[in-house]
Amino acid sequence: KNQVEQSPQSLIILEGKNCTLQCNYTVSPFSNLRWYKQDTGRGPVSLTIMTFSENTKSNGRYTATLDADTKQSSLHITASQLSDSASYICVVRGGTYKYIFGTGTRLKVLA
Amino acid sequence: DSGVTQTPKHLITATGQRVTLRCSPRSGDLSVYWYQQSLDQGLQFLIQYYNGEERAKGNILERFSAQQFPDLHSELNLSSLELGDSALYFCASSVGRQGWGYGYTFGSGTRLTVV
Question: Does any CB of chain B come closer than 8 Å to the CB of residue A94?
Answer without folding.
Answer: no
